[in-house]
Amino acid sequence: MPPSKPTVFCDIECYHGLFYAAFKRHEDGKRKGFELSHRSELDRRALKRMMMRNRIVTFRGMSYDVPMIFLALSGADTEALKRASDLLIKNNVKWWEAEEALEIKIPKALDHIDLEEPNPAVMQSLKTLNGRLHGKRLQDLPYAPDTILTDEEMDAVIDYCLISDLDATENLFEALREPLELREALGKQYKMDFRSKSDAQMGEAIIKSRIQQLTGQRPIRPKHTKSIRFKYDIPDWVHFETDQMRKILAVIRDTEFVLDKNSKVVFPTEFQKFKIEFGDSTYKMGIGGLHSTEANRSVYSTADRVLIDADVASQYPSIIMKLGLYPKSLGKDFLEVYGGLIKDRLAAKKAKDKVRDKAGKIALNGAYGKLGSPYSVLFAPHLLIAVTLTGQLSLLMLIEKAEAAGIPVVSGNTDGVLFHCPRSLVGGIDGDRLTGGRLKEITDWWEKTTGFKLEFVEYKSIHNQSVNSYFAIRADGKIKRKGPIGNPWSERPEENDLRAQMMKNPQMTICSDAALQYILDGTPVETTIKQCRDVRKFVTVIKATGGATWRDEVLGKVVRYIWSTEGDPIVKVKPHPSTGNRPKVPKTDGCRPLMTLPQKMPLDLDYPRYVAEANKILDEVDFDRSASSPAFTFFSNLINSTL
Q1: What is the rounded distance in angstroms from the CA atom of residue 14 to the CA atom of residue 154?
Q2: Cβ proximity of 340 and 453 under 8 Å
Q3: Whole-prediction pTM value?
Q4: Of the CATH numbers 3.90.1600, 3.90.320, 3.30.930, 3.40.50, which one belongs to the domain with range 229-316+384-477?
Q5: Model confidence over 186-204: pLDDT tens digits?
């Protein structure tokens, strides 16, 4: 349902001698600003009406914009506001500390949404997010924060405040429409305001609410110390047949885990030395999960072998329930609540209730994410390690068993493996389940032993730059791309993902598209690139620490550019500490900034360079372009059989 109040985007700028609050109404695009300076009195009455009669949307507004506005409403002058601005920024004052720090009171009736936490890339700036979402205009603050502004410079700051960040906030708001609608719906269900919370914060809040309903007591954050030490309790069902894995398991059993100064688990150096080898693959263990180390290769389903991907369904929630893991601060009631959330989500999936389904996913995954947060009631680093190591060891059990049966595993990563199985050892796939053969016997054994469930998909081929950067082509024609060559902006429904767009800088995606199209049907990369009329596919967005310039034009810390036939490199503002030289930003030779997206295709695009980059991708995945290649033979046979 639409909000009862108009939605208004808000941003402020504060300098010595200038305080400016800018607003843009979502419904009609109307903009209005409030200035306090030597040339303008602040219309406090109108500013307060603006704040209290609208739904205010900001980015990092809870910790900065909103406290600053209410300080201005209290009667503070520009110098007091500048001191407060420096205090909030330089001391990294948290939103819950802002009122006390500034000695103000923010009305509880304020209807405010802060987009910093609901977006998945919570550590990124608004400008970075706007670049990732292909915002029309990228612009940095025109003058350093301590500049004493002239009247002309004040006008430039006001123009920046009224347009750039307000439009960027609106762009992000539109991208987050579905997550915000979900938060609205859940807020009504739990009688809480989730709109400014991250997925993990919302998941934690849901679990806390259910724990309180069950026990009648409010969960309290556990006291902890950085000197916590613990060992991983290996489940009884984890066992191996090979000497290498038995030795590794013994090391894991005897290793003591410690926390760093930020209360994060330190990954033991002993584990970093593990070299786990099965068949032609080598695996590494890490805090984030297991991963193999393949690179620069293409693997195909053929007449004799088939690529079968096996993913663990709901891996982390399954491990938590299988091992009966619960934070000590919540006790065993946590398992009843967590198990209830799993049942609710399964019921929602069956009923095709998207709101309850997504709410369940957020709560379940949020609980795992908060196990490592010292600020959470769920903080339990020993459980975090239990979950991640159990996941890795269980996958290694599956890999060991498959390799012993003559079924190579060509990739393994966090929650799944990719088999290159002889066709004689597998029946087929019905839905997401195997139908017969030796591989099914092995996976059935694994599921019974671990209590986890696998979901299977057949691939035509996989083409790796590395384990985390690849093209994967499914038997049903759907595409999966990951890493630098990934393209969440793709027109393909299975790839287009707003959440993923906010997590990744665009990197001339036309090159990946062209390489993929060549792999799919042999279309020359030159054809795909030169026929493209969407300039957004040619841009790269980078973050230049300390700021950057192009031909002495200051660009700021977030830069968008194209490769141009009339280009020059982008150079960092800050000189190298030892040489004094200002270094070039990598891969920007021959580029031209495109801080504002044009309506027409630029005439100076360096097409040969984009073509060369697409061909480089094909080389990096070791794609054989000869007529006798496995890809050519397999896909030709496939096309002929279809015809």
Answers
A1: 10
A2: no
A3: 0.89
A4: 3.90.1600
A5: 888 889 999 999 988 888 8
